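User: Fold both of these, please.

Assistant: Here is the first one.
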Amino acid sequence: MSIWNAILLGLVQGITEFLPVSSSGHLSMIDNLFKLSMPEDGHVFFDVLLHLGTLISVCVVYWGDIVDMFYEALGFLNLGPLAGTRKRRYPAARQFLMIVLATLPLLLVLPVKDQLERLYYNNYFIGVALVLTGCMLYVSDKMIAGRKTGSSMTVLDAILIGLCQCVATIPGLSRSGTTITAGIATGLRRDYAVKFSFLMSIPAVLGANILNLVDAARQGVKLANVPAYLIGMAVSMLAGIGAISFLRYIADRGRFGGFAYYCWVVGVLSIILTMIF
């Protein structure tokens, strides 16, 4: 694998993982249409590193929230620095609980994991899924954002968002776009829907990486490709930080309609190019 190839894939992964345009859809098109994707040897390991890069980017941006959730969760159990402080409220610990509840529905995906992965190689399906992602984002713009945050969202809200995250494991559907739309639909503030979507990606991506590590160990790694792999991971991390910051800016000042039009164009283009080639 060339370094330029790794950089390109790192950029695509980092940007599209968090912008509501589907990272799986874009990587699939690059792979299926342009034959510029994962190396034949060690592609699972490289995929793990790319996702590790985006996982690090979430942790960097939301490090303060992660630390607060960790300490408050310990405090709630009467452990750690907050033990015995008699705090009546643990907002960060409650937010952590909501993230756990939203993550649990992903267990429903495990029995159909292999079938979903096969859809990655169907460009017609990817194109249709991207068009549907655009429709979903367009609808989210028409919704009236609520006032709920982590301290007021309910267990039902978290489970509904988690179920939508399950649906978004379908290649071509945007995970962030689906969960942000679901958050707005349940009455979350628009900026908090973005924040919750990114925080709940941490256990989702971590769990997927752990599962993929088994496949990576079986496949093996070509040592000559490791420098390119690491560069791709670093690019993915930096691009992810930029994408998260940009989407937070959009959430604070505007709406997501522009991404809807982008998904429509790319989805239709994917279908047309597949028909031609």
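And the second sequence with its predicted structure:
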Amino acid sequence: MGDFSKKEKSILFELSLNSRSPINKMAKRLKMSQQGLDYQIKKLHEKEHIKSFHTVIDYACFGYHAFRLFLLLNHQKGDFKQFFQSLEENPNILHLQETGGHWDLQLSIVAKNASQFHNELQKILTNHKTQIKNYTASTVISTYEMGRRHLADSATHTGALVIGGDREQVKIEPIEKRILKELYENPRISYVHLAAKYKLNPKTAVNKVRALEARGIIKAYSASLDPYKYNCIPTKILFRYQGCSPEQEEEILKFCKQQKEVVRVIKTLGHWNLEVDVETKDTVELRNICLQLKKHFGDSITKMETTQMFKLHKEKYLPQSFFTQE
């Protein structure tokens, strides 16, 4: 980890908040020249401070459900290079990341129903029985994306992006699907290039994208970042609670949303009730958050565990196969 300037953190914050924000507007907010900002973004990308850009799409709009999978690996056996490659190429795996602590790997898998997920799980366990020693699975109820407010001095909580949960399935036109695919593959494509590719008037292209956003299909445009590059430790706090009323559960969620170090909360059904992703400057800051959770909700929390997060192998919000379906 090296020195990281306040300006660089502000750029990362802006990109994680809206990676499609026009350079001229972003430069104005950051009090930089457009040329200077463009150069800084390219440099951050080259140094892998920015790993990738992505369009945040709500998979639930198309009838998908998400499931979480934690794997304990057998490090004494197997070719892990091929193992990771196989998981990365699996179109139903949207998120893949190495972890510390008890579990070695966390995955997010999408399927149309529990039966499909079970079939996918069995394939993974059968194909990699040498490498996988144990696992635990859970169903995702909903995910709350809070953003990286800790990167900006004056950023406050303005509401979470909610992905998943109860959603009425939507139907989109063929041209909307093509535009969505383009934004899925290249989130920062300009409207001019988007319009030219599909022979649309630029204004029509803008309106089509705006319609996808208004219907809640596209939630945001963000970036995958490497927290270690800007001197933060990414950690997942896992906990289970018991005898919690809906009001008490909402209080726990409210507390998590108010902590600027919290970047994501995943509400699940299974071994854990909540997964809280935090980015802290050190382990003391992490411990303070855990102590605050115990102080305020100790009567409800029956188990808590932390696991440090390491290399991110994959981050998507919709299976690639969606775009080939009729």
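The chain has a mean pLDDT of 91.
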